[in-house]
Amino acid sequence: GDGCGHTLLTPHSGTLSSKNYPGTYPNHTACRWQLRALPGTSLLLAFGDVDLEPSERCSRSSLLLADLQAGTSYAGPYCRNVVPATPLLVTNSSAVTVLFNSTSHRSGRGLLLSYATSQHPGRESVPQGCRGPPRLCLGPRVYCPAGCKDIAGDIWGNPSQGYRDTSVLCKAAVHAGVIADELGGQVTLSRQKGITLYESAFANGLHSKRGSLSEKRLLFHKGIFSPFLLKFGHDLAAKPACGDTLEVAAFNASSWWHEVDALGQDRAWAAERAALGTAGHSWAAEPGSEAAWLELDLGTRRNVTGIITKGSSEQHDYYVTSYRVSSSRDGKNWRPYRGSGGQEDKVFEGNADSQGEVSNAFIPPIVARYVR
């Protein structure tokens, strides 16, 4: 049977877990993951959690790390009574096979494991697994593996305030928009004095929680942050230096709604009303229109690293639940945004109501004059 749970594997880093993790893994399952890095590099494996039912020689459930081509075993078999000696295993190979098996059992969360290559966790970095808060010895730079977004664990806070120090660090880094979950990457952070209350936010497909005072808080550093701030039927917005909103020279749209109110008065939900902070109603496409788009002319080519959207509650409860982004340097030739090495157009998760703001990062950034 299939014992594979959440899995994201790339040539540089990745994350894997047993099925149902952190719930009890199923009986009579097996899974084999092939980890392959670039030739000339070696794999570093971080054990986030190994909780398999105890048994003699780990016969009921086991985790084994091996080089099948060489016919050698790196570590294991592991179970609850035979656990890894350290949370980090440094191999001398660019290929490792992870073998997980279970028979009949009663308990056990299963396993969570992440990896990175020796090429990426640099000398100043500490390889960080996906689970748990950062270790006390953590330096200013860590390497977060790909695939941390969907593992178990909570985060408290938001990109502007920072995060409660009990948050899962690499998951918080995805929420803050400093790394893309599908790639992972190096994170620069600092620890500062905690604050009384951490406000929740929805960003990059993740919800953070509202949290109380902590002794320390985590702040991620990502240099220039240049997002749009938009109001789509709905508000929208963008930024050239840290924290500054990018100015839009002109708005255009595929259509806009000419509303006739109860008094017979016409009200235009025009494209130029899409800037976040515009008083009253915002932009909305003509009802029934398909493939609607909103276009922003930045006046010149700019570096855009994200987008913040908000709905419009002016008489109508309007918001956009998902959207795609395309960009152009000349206004004629358009390129769809596909994210970090993606083969398909990226669909960004938008708003779930007309009140809250939702942030999404562009990793890599968009360099363009026009954005749709």
Question: What's this, in brief?
Answer:
This protein has 372 residues and is mostly beta strands.
Description:
This protein is mainly β and 372 residues long. It folds into three domains: 4-117, Jelly Rolls, CATH 2.60.120.290; 141-221, LCCL-like domain (Ferric Hydroxamate Uptake Protein, Chain A, domain 1, Beta Complex); 250-371, Sandwich (Jelly Rolls), CATH 2.60.120. Helix content is 2%, strand content 43%. Strands 16, 17, 20, 21, 22, 25, 27, 28 and 30 form a nine-stranded mixed beta sheet that branches. Strand 23 (257-260) and strand 24 form a beta hairpin. The longest helix has 8 residues, at 169-176. It is elongated, with a radius of gyration of 24 Å. Residues 237-242 have low confidence and may be disordered. It is found in: Membrane. Residues 141-218 form the LCCL domain. Disulfide bonds join 4-31.
Kindly list the characteristics that best describe this protein.
30 strands; 372 residues; membrane; mainly beta; 1 helix; Jelly Rolls; transmembrane; nine-stranded mixed β-sheet; elongated; Ferric Hydroxamate Uptake Protein, Chain A, domain 1
